[in-house]
Amino acid sequence: MSTFGPDGARRYARSRRAGPGAGHAAGVRRTRKELRQMAQSAATPPVPRTSAQGHQARHLLALPADVVVDEVEVLAMSRFAGTRWDVVPRDLPGADLPVGRMAGPGETGLLRLTRHSTIAGPYAPHGDGFELGLPAGTATAFDVLCPRERWDDAPPAFGGDRDGLARSFPTGLPNREEERVVTWLIAAARRLGGSLRLDVAGLWDPAEAGRRGPGAGVVLTPDPGVAVDMTVYSDVWLDPQAAERVLQAVHPRMRLATEGKEYLGPPEGIADRPMYPGEPLDPELRRAIHARADDFDIAALQAPTVLDGYGLMADLGLDGWVSVEINGEEHLPLLLRDLPWASGGAVSYRVRWDPPDLVESQQEFPQPAHVVARKRAADLVARVAKALHDAVGGEVADESDFLLDPADL
């Protein structure tokens, strides 16, 4: 039950990319967004004090003024197949209502992500008689409820915590559905330039606090620069040499990563040696088995080569490497699966950055040298994705499977 339908949601999802200087689609979509902002900026109710039940976790999604409800809906549709409006916000006209209803006066919308998880809003950036503790610049807040599912053990002290989850859930990380919802919230906040306050159940509700104590209520502001990788999905297959020509125009160090070593066969005399001391295999039988294996290898080497995937790579020196992996893909982002050209799968062109220091790349607050290298690599990844899209068409997605407008790359 989307406001737009699958194709409309796909087009609208492509109209926004987080980050300074990110462009927006022109024309009708920009006008539509301005109208949404005007309606959304009207008086909205505050976040209620009581919301979560004993089996539920509660999280807050805080968004800036230039984000509208439509965009939250589309990002939800990009991750959860069952997304639908149970209660449609009054400032969201045009929504079809096979199941839900329009919100009444002073009532917010209720977007269902899954059977057990919902997101309500938009709310004003303050609570009903209390403060939310959200960052400055927050214009609207969304109240997220999902099952409270946590691991029994505290997060390990070693390893990376790029998104700050360990300090947000110090007694046990989310798992199952709560993990899926929290992972989506982080990706959505990163895409929309927003923030999160995680695990707030019990902070303002005395009854809930008495049952299990207040949640951690840690505020996270995901860095948009962390999301570097992109994927181009298309129904066009570029031959390796054609892809190399396209990408060398972007970066002269881009090379096919298909060089291998000549196969010289098994070691001399291996058929006459037992696999281990005391092997009971008859020598004649052993030689016959090796002869059959040699025949199989020779037939395989003489058969025509069927290329179902290949890669290219550029060595960036101190900035690491950028690689492009080309393969057939059956599991596509949700918003692409209903498109005619993608109904049977597609060709994926995955553009990835391999940082020089993997440990540093998983830190929530990495060193400045890593941030500089990441910025330079991200610029190249975007230019490579743009060149591939110009060559093969299709759609571009970020590493969270949210669609991007190629004009913004």
Question: What does this protein structure show overall?
Answer:
- This protein is of the alpha+beta class and 409 residues long.
- It has two domains: 217 residues, no CATH class; 132 residues.
- The chain is 28% helix and 19% strand.
- The protein has ten helices and 15 strands.
- The strands form two sheets. It has an eight-stranded mixed sheet with strand order 3-2-4-5-6-1-7-8, covered by helices on one side. Strands 10-11-12-13-9-14-15 form a seven-stranded antiparallel sheet.
- It starts with 5 loop residues before the first helix and ends in a 5-residue tail after the last strand.
- 35% of the residues are buried.
- The N terminus is likely disordered.
In short:
The protein has 409 residues and is α+β, with helices and mostly antiparallel strands. Helix content is 28%, strand content 19%.
Figure out the total of helices.
Answer: 10
Q: Report the count of strand segments.
A: 15
Straight-line distance between termini: 30 Å
Radius of gyration from the alpha-carbon trace, in angstroms: 26 Å
Taken in chain order, the helices and strands follow as HHEHEEEEEHHEHEEHEHEEEHHEE
The helix-and-strand class reads alpha+beta
As a percent range, the share of strand residues is: 15-25%
Q: Indicate the mean pLDDT.
A: 85
Cα shape? elongated
**Oligomeric form:** single chain
Regions with little confidence, pLDDT below 50 for 5+ residues: 1-6, 15-30, 37-41
Query: How many structurally independent domains?
Result: 2
Reported for the largest beta sheet, the result is: 8 strands, mixed
Strand order of the largest sheet: 3-2-4-5-6-1-7-8
Give the % helix. Answer: 25-40%
